[in-house]
Design a protein that fits this description.
The protein is elongated, with a radius of gyration of 19 Å. Strands 1-2 form a two-stranded parallel ribbon. The chain folds into two domains: about 40 residues, no CATH class; about 35 residues, no CATH class. About 5% of the residues are buried. The chain is built from two helices and two strands, in the order E-H-E-H.
């Protein structure tokens, strides 16, 4: 319910992160649109480390480690 107007809230779409679960069933039950977004970068970059890679940012060569983190994760 909206605090200002008192009107009930009605969802029009579900925006979900693909690693989460249950979004398909919720959207089906509510009979609304589903938008799945992938927040993990698919391309190696020196700006950010791979999301699944734990990095100690107190070390030097952070840009190089960020880039190499994508290669390290792909090897597993």
């Amino acid at each position: 319910e909206d605090v200002e107007t008192g009107e009930p809230f009605t969802a029009e779409t579900v925006i979900a992160n693909s690693p989460s679960f249950g979004y398909i069933h919720c959207a089906q039950k509510l009979q609304i649109l589903l938008q799945i977004m992938l927040t993990m970068s698919c391309s190696a970059t020196s700006v950010f480390a791979h999301p699944l890679f734990h990095l100690d940012y107190s070390k030097t060569f952070v840009e190089k480690i960020n880039f190499l983190s994508y290669i390290a994760i792909e090897m597993f």
